[in-house]
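Q: What would this chain look like folded?
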Amino acid sequence: MRIQELVNHWESSSHGERTRREFSIHLPLKEAAQVLALAEMYPDCTENQILTDLVCFALGQLKEAFPYEAGRQVAVDECGDPVYEDAGQTPKFIRLAQKYRQSLELENHRETN
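A: My prediction, written as structure tokens:
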């Protein structure tokens, strides 16, 4: 997601799936003021939604920024060139995020039943 897409998202004020778990943070004054400014600019969005969307955006950018590290060869592409698995942080991050997503989904399911 690009930052313009995030602004468009706020303008449409759509809400995605949310976990029941809360994360409490204490922002530096400058960033807290910026969140409050965004909440005033987009009155259909709560401060919590703005912070959630900003964290989601930043995590997406972080995942894309992890450097690729070639691992052992796992295949050959259609041109005969070797294709290597990513041995860097990206697959570990994705694997751990999937593990925690399953755990959070289970928590949500337990709390709704």
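The longest strand covers residues 70-76.
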